[in-house]
Every structure is written in structure tokens, then in C-alpha cells.
Amino acid sequence: MINCHELNGEFNENGIKFENFHEIETCLNNNFTKLHEFPAQVIILIINEYGKKIARNRDLLRMEGVPFLCFYLKKMNIEKQLKLNLENIEYLDHFVEVEDEKYIKAQPKGIVCHWMAGNVPTLGIYSVLQSILCKNSNILRVSKESVIEVYELLRPLDNIKIEYEGNTYSSKIILKNIALIYFNSEDKDLNSQMSLKADARIVWGSKIAVDSITLLPKKTTCKDLIFGPKYSFAVFDKSAIESDDIEEYLENLVTDIIAFNQKGCSSPQVLFVEKSKLPIESIAQMLSLKFEKITKRYTNLDLEEAIVAKIINKRGEYLLSLNKLAYISNGLKYTILIDSELKLEDAITGRTIFIKEVEDILAVCPLITKNIQTIGIASKDNKRTLEFADRVTTLGVDRVVKIGYMNFYDSPWDGCLIMSELVRWCTLNIKGMM
């Protein structure tokens, strides 16, 4: 059974039950043309106002990742993202002449179906709004754990009106092109039905989820954008460690670790520190003080039983070893584990970070695979940072960002310019007709 929480611009907190996707598809198809008639600038302005409404809502701002979402929704940033993805925003509105009597237009794909992971609720908003900017209709399937948060985040998109070039436009048309739903992830029939409605499929999740959805039947014209499980870590070079900003770098690292309970693909699991005048033990002690300071801001630091068991077992292993060190909090606020083995440790999550000292940050290069998404870097040497980024991205890394920004959504993501994939590039060539 499909539980639909928003359809045709109407919200229902408890959800409306559907046995299949017929009515959902009909609503989206009926509203598709109206969204297509919206100028791109109107959609940008509505999203900008939507971001302002979220920013004024204290309850929403307490959700993990929402303050940065508000920044992402700003007009200036949206325009920047569109230009990066499409080169020219005007492609969304009309045929643009690119050569003598040759024109290009970015037409929408149609219905974009999103399967969202449950670990980062704000991801559903990023995913669906990028598709809306390309004037697509959307079926947004979220997890049971995040459906209420996504529902609450979507509600401020209602009742926004924009005046543009003498006309009034309502955000209701945008909402009418979004269906917010939940159904059991193990329901193969509903997953198959949803897949067959898709002109593009966007899948965020674990390997099991990604594999099961990508194997579903689909249209031969359907475009797939797959964002499966990834691994991320951080590096501090000598220039950063020996600088006056080391405490700020460590504080930023803690914010990267705590965000989304360290379950995001972009969350750091290991910190590699370049050998310097500062002993690794001193770095760990400083980091523990930053954890103590920052965790006081959080009212809910509860962890799942399975994660608690992993942390306790790993703490015991390090505390009993002669070659390892552990700096741990009272309770389970944080766990810092130190050893000398050059490897990427299995993610424990729950605010657990492994620290390893290396002679040179480039020593991590043999560890790089295409499964590495983000490396957070602290460095005072821009030339060295560029050299490092070139090396690791050649080997498979998608993002190298300054520490403190690892979990900030940006474009490209996972090596993909998403919006450029959510349009059909159509041409008109009339040379010699006249």
C-alpha cells in the first residue's frame, strides 16, 4: 500500500492510501504542462522565498543540515548551480541559438522518481528541487524514518506567490508536480510500478537498496542516476597542524563528524595527520576538548544498540592493546582511536574517529578507490592542496573540500552534474530553410 503525504498540492500528515500509482501519475501528468510554462527565474524566486520561510522556522532549523539547506536555496546559489550544470539558464525557457540558425533547448525528462535513503532527510529536498528546476514532475519516495521530517520541510513551499514580468505565479504549481510517498521498501510490486513510471530514476542508498532498484523493470528511455554507499575521510597536513588555526580546524572536523550522526557518505571516519612538531597524542587531546565543547550543544546524542555494541567492542580492543591508544568520553559522546596502521577502518559511526599519523598526506593515495567520495583537508599550502587533489581525484575521489564543509551539499555530487542529467538536450536546425 502506498501512503501519500502530499499530492496535487495538498498535504496530508497521516497520508492517503493508494493501491497503485494510477491516480498519482494522472495528477502529475495533469500538472506537468503548467510547470513547463513557468519561467526558470520564477522557479528560482519561489525556491528563494521557500528558503527564507524555512530560515524563519526555529523548529525546522533544529533539524540536522537545515541551516545549510537554507543557504543552498538562496537565489544567488541556485543560479550558480544552474549555470554550472547547464551553462545557460535560458536553455530551460526557450530555444537558444548556439550556431548560425542552430538552436538548443533543455526540455524536462518527464516524471523523475526518487528513492531516498533515510540517513539524511534534507537530501530529499535537494534531490526533488533540482528536478523541479528542470521542470520535471516528481515521485519522491522517502523512508519510514524520515517521512515526517521531509513532510515538515516541504510544507513551507506552500502559499508562495511571485510577481514576475506582470504575471503572478504560485508555488502551488510546483507542489502539484511533487508526490511525497512512502511504501515498504521490500514491496517489489510497488517498486516495480514506480520504476515503470520513471523517465529518470534517482536512487540514494545502501548497496542492497541500489542493487534491488536498478534491477527493476524500466522504460528503455529511462535515465538512471545512482548514488550508492561511499566512504570519506580527512587529512591534516603539517602546515595546518603547526599553524595558529589548528584548534579551528579540529573544531570544524568535529562538526563534520557529528553531522547526520556520522552516517552520511560524506562523513569522515578516519583522520590522517602529517607528522609534525605536534605529537599525535596532543592532537587527540585537543580533539577531545573540542568534542566536549561541541557536544554540549546537542540535546539528543542517543545511539542505536548495534552502534553502541560496536563502539564498546572497539574501545576495549584499543584500550587493551599495547600499540594503540584511545581517548574516550564519559558515556558515548565521542571515541577517538589511535593506531599506526595505514588503512581505512570500517565505519563505526556514533562519533567515532580513527587517527593515524603519516609521513606525508600523499601516503593515503594507495588507499584510494572509486568508493571514496569526500576527503576533507586542512592545509595552509594551496599549491600542495592542488597537487593532493589532482592525485586523489585521478585515483577515484569525487570531492576534496576544506574541513568543516564535508557534509555540505554541492554540485557536482558524486562526480555528477545532476541537473544536466535531468533534461533532454533538444536541437532545432533550420539553416537553409529560408
Q: If you had to describe this structure to a student in words, what would you say it looks like?
A:
By secondary structure, the chain is of the alpha/beta class. The chain has 2 domains: 2-228 and 414-429, 3-Layer(aba) Sandwich (Aldehyde Dehydrogenase, Chain A, domain 1); 231-402, Aldehyde Dehydrogenase, Chain A, domain 2. Helix content is 38%, strand content 24%. The protein contains 16 helices and 19 strands. The longest helix has 16 residues, at 40-55.
What are the key terms here?
single chain, 434 residues, alpha/beta, Aldehyde Dehydrogenase, Chain A, domain 1, Aldehyde Dehydrogenase, Chain A, domain 2, 2 domains, 7-stranded mixed beta sheet, 16 helices, 38% helix, globular
Residue share in β-strands: 15-25%
| Number of separate strands | 19
Integer average pLDDT: 96
- SS content category: alpha/beta
CATH topology annotation of the largest domain? Aldehyde Dehydrogenase, Chain A, domain 1
| Major sheet | 7 strands, mixed
The overall number of domains is 2
SSE blueprint:
Blueprint: E1 2-7, E2 10-18, H1 22-36, H2 40-55, H3 58-61, H4 66-72, H5 75-86, E3 96-99, E4 102-108, E5 111-115, H6 122-133, E6 137-141, H7 147-154, E7 161-164, E8 167-170, H8 172-175, E9 178-182, H9 188-197, E10 200-204, H10 207-214, E11 223-227, E12 231-236, H11 238-241, H12 246-258, E13 268-274, H13 280-295, H14 305-320, E14 325-328, E15 335-338, E16 352-358, E17 372-378, H15 382-395, E18 399-402, H16 418-421, E19 423-429
Parallel strand pairs: 5-6, 5-10, 6-9, 10-11, 12-13, 12-17, 13-16, 15-16, 17-18
Antiparallel strand pairs: 1-2, 1-9, 3-4, 4-19, 7-8, 14-15
Helix pairs in contact: 2-4, 12-13
